[in-house]
Amino acid sequence: MAKKPLNIGMIGYGFMGKAHTNAWTTANRFFELEHQPVLKAICARNADAAQTFADNWGYESVETDWKALVARDDIDAVDVCVPNNLHKDIAIACAEAGKMVLCEKPLAINAQDGEVMCQAIEKAGVPNMVWYNYRRIPAVTFAKHIIDTGDLGKVFHYRANFLQDWTISSDLPQGGAALWRLDAKAAGSGVTGDLLAHCIDTAIWLNGSISNVSAMTETFVKERMHNETGKVEPVGIDDACAFLCRFDNGSLGVFESTRYARGHKALYTFEINCEHGSLRWDLHDLNRLEYFSHRDEGTVRGWRSIHVSDGDHPYLGNWWVPGLCLGYEHSFVHQVADFLKSLETGEPAGPTFRDALETQKVCDAVLASGKSGSWTNV
Ligand SMILES: NC(=O)c1ccc[n+]([C@@H]2O[C@H](COP(=O)([O-])OP(=O)(O)OC[C@H]3O[C@@H](n4cnc5c(N)ncnc54)[C@H](O)[C@@H]3O)[C@@H](O)[C@H]2O)c1
């Protein structure tokens, strides 16, 4: 049967522009889907660089203004891979133009903007999704399957870390194309929106809503040269953030993120401790899920290290023979496959904008608590 073309317009060709383009071109080769993504247009402000990207990755055309891309009749879905402060205007314009929108995380720079985006998307009734891709690393998806059986019993604790070390030097400037993450105007926040947002999305997905938080944040380097103004300016982002929280199910959460953990490049880990067992996962060993079951016979009871690579593990039946590994990039391929499947079934692929708004609200509460020093309701 002929596939239905789905014309993609991508905005931004940096780290995520590549990860997503790879996913749009790969999903159909491994998953049975009715739609065939077509790389219609890439948008970036520099025409030459955009053309080079288009030639390398197979886009049919180039735009240098995102508004022109959104206005095109031949674009069905817009993929938003630009800094956080641009998500809102682009997503709303897409909704008004009746386009499907796939937006990078965090949804917005704050929950207020996120709410406006949700309203626009819901009013337009367009399919939408936010790229919290860690949900679709098979070992993480498998953790969700195990938790959802209820076999682990009552949940007591959830803890997660996301540790990096790339901003320790005070000589590093802020702002501009390469360092927008250090500029509060472009990023909205520091590690809270960039890294903890991933941990919070996974946590809510696995363990339900978070009701209140108590946070501490720190900006270790208070001033940095700004790449756009050439002046030394105050740093407005959080360099590190740790918070405690309560989940609606009564369990307690502990989260930590920093870009000052010397030796750690992207150490995302989570652990959940329940009445009958525990699970833990580590991005550096992403194909493994560690599982302790208290129901195992006592003398052999211990942590199992499950290599999530068998044909009946999530997504794996569509890939190589059992025992072979997948990587970071496959999480995006799975997200595209699930999005395309959702167009067939009419069942939204999460996280939707509305789901991602919940994470945004937790981020806002964390930042507010970090400022006030008080417990803050989400
Ligand atoms: N899901 C994940 O794991 C993950 C990982 C990294 C980044 N992100 C998110 O993806 C988004 C992009 O991050 P990145 O790491 O790809 O950044 P990046 O700096 O690598 O790329 C950003 C791109 O946006 C383009 N851009 C900036 N302003 C533009 C404008 N006005 N019009 C058109 N293009 C413009 C830049 O030219 C660049 O190509 C951010 O929201 C970030 O939080 C998500």
Task: Chart the SSEs and their pairings.
Blueprint: E1 4-11, H1 15-30, E2 35-43, H2 47-57, E3 61-63, H3 66-71, E4 77-80, H4 87-96, E5 100-103, H5 111-124, E6 128-130, H6 138-149, E7 155-163, H7 176-179, H8 184-187, H9 191-207, E8 210-218, E9 223-225, E10 232-234, E11 240-247, E12 252-258, E13 267-274, E14 277-282, E15 288-293, E16 303-307, H10 328-345, H11 353-372, E17 376-377
Bound molecules: nicotinamide-adenine-dinucleotide.
Explain this structure:
The protein has 378 residues and is α/β, with parallel strands linked by helices. The protein has 2 domains: 4-133, 3-Layer(aba) Sandwich (Rossmann fold), CATH 3.40.50.720; 137-377, Dihydrodipicolinate Reductase, domain 2, CATH 3.30.360.10. It contains 11 helices and 17 strands. The chain has helices at residues 15-30, 47-57, 66-71, 87-96, 111-124, 138-149, 176-179, 184-187, 191-207, 328-345, 353-372, and strands spanning 4-11, 35-43, 61-63, 77-80, 100-103, 128-130, 155-163, 210-218, 223-225, 232-234, 240-247, 252-258, 267-274, 277-282, 288-293, 303-307, 376-377. The chain has a 9-stranded mixed sheet. Strands 3-2-1-4-5-6 form a 6-stranded parallel sheet, with helices on both faces. Helix 4 (87-96) packs parallel to helix 5 (111-124) and helix 9 (191-207) crosses helix 11. Nicotinamide-adenine-dinucleotide binds next to helix 1.
